[in-house]
Amino acid sequence: MTLRPAPLIACLALLPSLGACSDEVAAPEPLSSMALAAVSEDPGAPTEQLARAVDDLFIDEDRLGDTRALVVMHEGEVAAERYGPDYGPETRFVSWSMAKTITAVMIGMLVADGRLNLDRTPPIPRWQRPGDPRSDITLRQLLQMRSGLRHTEAGNPPYESSEVRMLFLDGRDDMAEWAESQPLEAEPGRAFEYSSNTTVILADIAARVLTQSDDPEVRRQAVSSYLHARLFDPLGMDSMVPEFDASGTLIGGSLIHGNARDWAKFGEFLRHGGSHRGAQLVPRKWVELMTSPSPRSPHYGGQTWLNRETGESEHPLFPDRAPDSMFAAIGHMGQYVLVSPDQRLTVVRLGHSDDAQRPPMLQELADIMELYPSR
């Protein structure tokens, strides 16, 4: 049997419908009342676009992880705020490594007080013994994660991680003692190596400066009182709860708890160069040090991540989609305080995203930030 082509008129009859299909673009789903309610009356960006970008973070849990809190501050005002089920404005969230940036501010205050010197060996007794090569480590090098101390941040298996051993295994009762006893594996200052243990050393240094006592309760009280009097109370960060180990050392690299609004206040404080309502709580030059590249890492400053190109394909932020002046406090499993002075913007995202979920989740945060032009 011979197959014949369909009559020409029949083919022509199909063209209008085919053309309509090819040109049709599916309309976006209508925004829910919850999505619209998350955005303020004057958010400084197109309301519906911002509401949709915020909504995307909360509705695609399989791909992005569980977003539990989001606060967007523009020009010092709340532009958007939303929480996941069972979370709210009063919920305290664990900082994980966002605590490092708070610890750096505390060290900066002690430097400004004249109680520490950036380019001298800090007051760690075991490093002061004659012939100990760790006496060459400076406070600046500790802040910039280039101490040269032996460290493995993420081990495989996990119990081989220096951080895990310090936090949960043989170092847990006296974390600073464990971290400070590590030998050198590189010349101080030569190489960048991200280390939560280094920040515990910084917290121990603060305690040693603030009190001569070895009593754990005295150490806890000295550091807690200093943080509240000099940082938390002036900023109105009333929810903040710092956590200490059994020896009274602040777990300054991992465990400070606070609600999303207070983390946003901290970001705004840094955006203003360490000032709040006309009071300079930490010198502006110190915040500039924290947010300037270290000599050994273009995307890390003083206990703070930077949105600077590294030449590598992987990056903890998104230098292709936000100004290079942006910086961040970043915590395990997707905790972020993103600060962009050029956009007059602070964005806080708290939640739980695994390794595969964090890159696409970051791109959703970039979608929000791109709605705000730079000055």
CATH superfamily of the domain at 93-306: DD-peptidase/beta-lactamase superfamily
Beta-strand share of residues: 5-15%
Averaged pLDDT, please?
93
Order of helices and strands: HHHHEEEHHHHHHEEHEEHEEEEH
Structural class comes to alpha+beta
Give the N-terminus to C-terminus distance in angstroms: 73 Å
Q: Which regions have little confidence, pLDDT < 50, spanning 5+ residues?
A: 1-21
Largest sheet: 6 strands, antiparallel
Structure description:
By secondary structure, the protein is α+β, with helices and mostly antiparallel strands. It has a domain at 93-306: DD-peptidase/beta-lactamase superfamily (Beta-lactamase, 3-Layer(aba) Sandwich), CATH 3.40.710. It has helices spanning 8-23, 33-37, 47-59, 61-64, 99-112, 139-143, 162-168, 175-180, 196-210, 216-235, 260-271, 284-290, 358-369; strands at residues 66-74, 77-83, 93-94, 241-242, 256-258, 275-276, 279-280, 305-306, 327-331, 335-340, 345-352. The strands form 3 sheets. Strands 2-1-11-10-9-8 form a 6-stranded antiparallel sheet, with helices on both faces. It has a 3-stranded antiparallel sheet with strand order 3-5-4. The relative contact order is 0.15.
